[in-house]
Write a structure and sequence with these properties.
By secondary structure, this protein is α+β, with helices and mostly antiparallel strands. It is 23% helix and 36% strand.
């Protein structure tokens, strides 16, 4: 009888131990999914050599719509040759449509032929999913805000837009948008005077000082730099600032910026990170460049990522 009792107790002990060895359910961490959206804008573009946008293909004082600054661009809808002059029906970056001919320019050595660009202007940007809905909405919303500013500044003419994305193992997502500068963009006075809207434009686009280059038609910025960066915490979808990576190192940051040789202004969320603690800020330069300059601050990083 004792042997039976001992055997039963041993069996219960083994079953109990076996129960303790059952592995707990493994909770897998959500990982971000990054889809790249690519759109093509294949249209003929013309680079203006000065002159005027006109209501019809004829050079007369009465049909002037808009003065055209040399070096600015328009998108072409049709071309024709009239009385030996090349004409194109165009829409400017500001959204005005009319007729243009290079022969409108009075300079002796001015090129009388249309300067046409047939390249594809591709736009590429990421969309984030796979994480919490709130976090994904925060990130995609910030990307959308940037794209709206890009679309407004580039206008109907458009522009190249590419992106570099770094997905860090520590739930950090970083995006760098790259695009060529836009020169001589004229903004309507109403937009500039709308404080909220203009601050949004200037958040995503580095705009050089405005001046009334073209009288009565708005204010013109010589340089418009839409190069921009943003870094996110994937668990919340919120943007991270430099303080998260650099800590209380403002004096050292100022020293690095001063060593660049020209006055630089730093926005604390306009930066991107790469692997192995590489961090680069996009600092705003003063004249004559008035653009965003990449400055490495990797040596000041205090956090492992």
């Amino acid at each position: 009888m004792k042997k039976i009792i001992i055997l039963l107790m041993s069996l219960l002990f083994l079953l109990n131990m076996a129960g303790c060895s059952v592995p707990k359910a493994i909770v897998q961490e959500k990982k971000a999914k990054i889809d790249f959206i690519n759109t093509d804008h294949v249209m003929e573009r013309v680079t203006f050599n000065g002159g005027f946008l006109r209501t019809e293909p004829e050079i007369t004082p009465s049909n002037i719509l808009y003065p055209l600054l040399k070096g600015t661009q328009g998108i072409i809808y049709g071309k024709r040759k009239i009385n030996g002059k090349e004409w194109a029906k165009v829409t400017t970056r500001e959204g005005l449509t009319g007729w243009y001919t290079p022969s409108d320019v009075k300079e002796k050595d001015a090129d009388p032929y249309l300067k046409i660009d047939k390249k594809n202007y591709q736009i590429s940007y990421p969309q984030i999913s796979g994480i919490s809905e709130e976090a994904a909405n925060n990130i995609n919303g910030e990307i959308k805000n940037y794209l709206e500013a890009f679309s407004y500044v580039s206008g109907p003419v458009g522009g190249y837009l590419q992106c570099q994305v770094t997905y860090n193992r520590n739930n950090i997502l970083s995006i760098l948008f790259t695009t060529p500068k836009i020169y001589y963009r004229t903004y309507d006075t109403k937009t500039v005077q709308d404080k909220k809207k203009w601050e949004t434009v200037c958040k995503y686009c580095r705009v050089s000082p405005l001046s009334p280059v073209i009288s009565d038609t708005g204010l013109t910025a010589q340089i418009n730099d839409l190069q921009y960066a943003m870094t996110f915490d994937l668990t919340t979808g919120k943007r991270l600032t430099l303080d998260y990576f650099l800590g209380n190192n403002q004096n050292k940051v100022n020293a690095v910026l001063a060593a660049e040789g020209s006055p630089l202004h730093l926005e604390k969320d306009d930066f991107y990170v790469e692997e192995k603690q590489q961090l680069t800020v996009l600092a705003e330069q003063q004249g004559p460049e008035w653009d965003r300059k990449r400055v490495k601050l990797s040596s000041l990083v205090t956090r492992d990522f």
